[in-house]
Amino acid sequence: MKITEHIKKADGKTLFSFEIIPPKKGNNINDLYNNIDPLMEFNPPFIDVTTSREEYVYIDKGNGLLDRKITRMRPGTVGICAAIKHKYDVDTVPHVLCGGFTKEETEYVLVDCHYLGIDNVMALRGDAMSHQKYFTPNQGGNHYATDLVKQISDLNCGKYLHDVIESTNKADFCIGVAGYPEKHLEAPSLQTDLKRLKEKVDAGADYVVTQMFFDNQKYFAFVEAAKKAGINVPIIPGIKPIAVKRHLQLLPQVFKIDLPETLISSVENCKTNKDVRQVGIEWAIQQSKELLAAGVPVLHYYSMGKSDNVHAIASELF
Ligand code: FAD
């Protein structure tokens, strides 16, 4: 079932959902299940599964030289979506990236999703690879998320690449895209970024999930500005509980987001990362309570594969 249908069916009640990352290749899927199991008591109607970009690894050739290989460390997004969907009877949302894929490869991913009965996909550009300064699409790949949304929308109309077939069985994907309450790090201004978001919606996006934020006023202002810009699809807030002290430097640096002073000092006062995790839980509970009271459609948590903190938060709310 589509995310938009889940929201409609909930009739104003806020839903609970979360995002997981595939395990590093070579690991067992049971670790993932062990983290999902406790969260199922909160009846998530859908679970997102991220896609990681390829990266370079350097293999010692033993003669003083290094061999550079390109690899994907966390493959398996669509397979994991299928496994979770069938194990828990829940909708899953694979993240589909522009970066690292040709349009043909993207089409094959979407065809797999269609055969597997996956009704939703999250369309994202992806980031630059670690050695790159700027994002560069693959030759023959989509450049911006809008281009990817257009490709998925075309598929929904039975239009495949290269017009080589006539479809008798159209896909009907519900398409999610990313939104940035504190603007995307490359965007010159929030207003420009909102214009780009509107382009994604005009191209066929059905809902938006936000980047993490720690000050709800940023989300409320973003939703207001988006409405003014003519964006009328659900905007789902993404919540990340701070889990380690290093997040104080890492999150602003990687995502160009602000952390409130009170949160920073609470984390700085912690003696151990166990204490930090507790501060992160309490902050996320307060954030979630206010968002719940404001009637957001879904509270969507970035679990990063470890569910104990998301479980503690959801226990207070759902
Ligand atoms: P876009 O919407 O394409 O925007 C990227 C930048 O380009 C923005 O600054 C925008 O303003 C600008 N722009 C857009 N269109 C144009 C245009 N036509 N001309 C000029 N500028 C333009 N990353 C992963 O690798 N895997 C994941 O699974 C993943 N999941 C995510 C889930 C969520 C909810 C969010 C918020 C992010 C996720 N990301 C993920 C990170 C995401 O890939 C990065 O934030 C990426 O840098 C931007 O992706 P986007 O889809 O927002 O890009």
From TrEMBL:
Pfam families: MTHFR. It comes from the Bacteria. Pathway: One-carbon metabolism; tetrahydrofolate interconversion; Amino-acid biosynthesis; L-methionine biosynthesis via de novo pathway. GO terms for cellular component: cytosol. Its cofactor is FAD. Gene3D superfamilies: 3.20.20.220. GO terms for biological process: methionine biosynthetic process; tetrahydrofolate interconversion. Transmembrane segments: none annotated. Coiled coil: none annotated. The keyword Plastid does not apply. InterPro entries: FAD-linked_oxidoreductase-like (IPR029041), Mehydrof_redctse-like (IPR003171), MTHF_reductase_bac (IPR004620). The keyword Amino-acid biosynthesis applies. It catalyses: (6S)-5-methyl-5,6,7,8-tetrahydrofolate + NAD(+) = (6R)-5,10-methylene-5,6,7,8-tetrahydrofolate + NADH + H(+). GO terms for molecular function: FAD binding; methylenetetrahydrofolate reductase (NADH) activity. Its EC number is 1.5.1.54. PANTHER family: METHYLENETETRAHYDROFOLATE REDUCTASE, METHYLENETETRAHYDROFOLATE REDUCTASE (NADPH). Belongs to the methylenetetrahydrofolate reductase family. This is Methylenetetrahydrofolate reductase. It comes from Polaribacter haliotis. The gene is metF.
